[in-house]
TrEMBL record:
One of its GO terms (biological process) is protein maturation. GO terms for molecular function: carbon dioxide binding; iron ion binding. This is HypC/HybG/HupF family hydrogenase formation chaperone. Signal peptide: none annotated. InterPro entries: Hydgase_assmbl_chp_CS, Hydrogenase_HupF/HypC. PROSITE patterns: HUPF_HYPC. Pfam families: HupF_HypC (PF01455). The lineage of its organism: Bacteria, Bacillati, Bacillota, Candidatus Fermentithermobacillia, Candidatus Fermentithermobacillales. PANTHER family: HYDROGENASE MATURATION FACTOR HYBG (PTHR35177:SF2). Belongs to the HupF/HypC family. It comes from Candidatus Fermentithermobacillus carboniphilus.
Amino acid sequence: MCVAIPLKVRGLEGDWAILEISGGTMKARSDLVSVKPGDYVLVHAGFIIEKLEPEEAKKTVEMFSQVFSVTGKDLPERKDEC
């Protein structure tokens, strides 16, 4: 099962979006959803599948942070799969 964590768009390179995740970056295709720097998105299988409102993204990240704090783990720094 894959779980999508909201990512922030830092920039665009053609059909690729540069996304921020826990201080690192990753790329995802932006063919399916029109995005701009500053947007929050969900990614599945290397494609942006949904744009989120900033407040919704923050709430989701906070929820994941709480879950990971209970388990003693950190949010993943980078995940290219799922």
